[in-house]
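Listing 4. Sequential folding, example run.
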Amino acid sequence: MTRRYTIDQLLTGLPVPIVDVRTPAEFTHGHIPGAVNIPLFTNEERVTVGTTYKQQGREAAILLGFDLTGSKWSAFIRQALELAPEKKVAVHCWRGGMRSAAMAWALDLYGFDVSLIQGGYKQYRRWVLKRMEQPWEFRVIGGMTGSGKTAILKQLAKQGEQTVDLEDLAQHQGSTYGTLNRLIQPTQEQFENDLASRLSTLDATRPIWIEDESQNIGRCILAKPFYTRMREAAIFDLQVPLDQRIAALEQEYGNLDRSFLIECTERITKRLGPEQTRNAIAAIREGRIPDFIRQVLVYYDKAYRKGLKFRDTARIVELPLDTHDPLQNTARLLAAARSLTTTTTI
């Protein structure tokens, strides 16, 4: 049996495996989180079918499609059975057209209960962008580099607070050293899909804790409506002593490959200045990691202070911290948030 469902129906109340029948290249560029790719065509085959459609028409393209997939159908069904032994799946292609219809027909013939997603992946992308436009109530954790923001965010999640870890979704720590020489960022489209998926699990009537970020997190870019909501939210400015921040950053970056650190430092020469860049690189080569960190923090601290000036001062909550213990700092942050809610609306 084949039924048709909207994206909202699928994502909110239809707990079945999702089969994406688009090409591997399309799937890699962006897909519904959790979906499994069972491509009807290879990347090259899709181009050939598309060209045939344009030059010879719909019927010729359909015949070519059956010629190309004729020997593949049993494999498609076996893959679907491995994914869904109960024979219940949702299927989609780019626009909910011929590719998904063909796969749905074959699976239905075999006895599957098939849900076709109306509008396909294209409609899903509209759903993603709408999530970015919702009036989320953010509480932003700010503070200069090395203030322990990520550790506090993780602690908040453990305590049942709503959180979104943008750096984890973007696979980047937000600075020029942000890949840590090992992280691989998703495509822009997949970043947006993953973020929308995370947001869809949260209660829009409750506050959501999020780290202060620039609009670009490495190569990933936050949608303007989403970023605007972040900038308008209350920000809790963690104020941690410089030496304490340097010690924390040494733990995080001290064991990274020196050539990676040098290459990243050279990329910000214009912002650091030639003398500071030379001093920072010399410190890296000589293994004086705290000195290297101290040099680059001059730039990052300046950039943070500059960004803070563009925020509404009435929505900046200064929070001095004298320990790097995430548990204690989280308790102080929550106390500050509760205190603020009793006097104003966050």
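-- end of first protein; second protein begins --
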Amino acid sequence: MSRFISISALAFSTLMLSACSILPEPEQLHVYRLPSTVPSAAASASRSPMTLQINRPNSNQILDSSRIVVLPDGNQVSTYQGVRWSDRAPTVLRDRLIDGFVNANRFAAVSSDDNHLQTDLQLVSSLRAFQSEYRNGAPQVQIQLDAQLVNSHQQIIASRRFNVSQGATDTAIDNVVAAFGSAADSLSTQVIEWTVRQSKTASKQP
């Protein structure tokens, strides 16, 4: 009886070792923050006394994810394997916009919708594109944001669609992520200047 148990145990161990050897290794995951090269700005002489809340953009199910979206061929939608954003794309972009507004020093205070604070203005938006698209074999980052500036009475003051494109130096994921960062910096600059202009109109309204 003891001999049977010993042989069975040996056979089981061999079987388990064989099974382990054929199991796929877990995918190595690399997590990226959205890079930025925009330095902090000095305090602006034309700083508005108004307060501003930046809301997390609405988006579809494909973009509302931490996966980095790529369109390798026409309308085919895919994602880069083994890489993720540090948060869901709409949150990553919202936080970049908040950083841009804070660094620009153009409003008395800037907050996010996570804080649920009462502010003079809200920047509400929909994220329509946040992806890499291949053009003639080269990746190009596309960001499209539909923005609305809303006052404390939930009235829309102004609306605008922003489109930004930025080519990557090559297909390496590090360079694609760098292109996302440059595109987001450009978008942030445009959104800030537009919001500042529109807020001046809002301040004159009763």
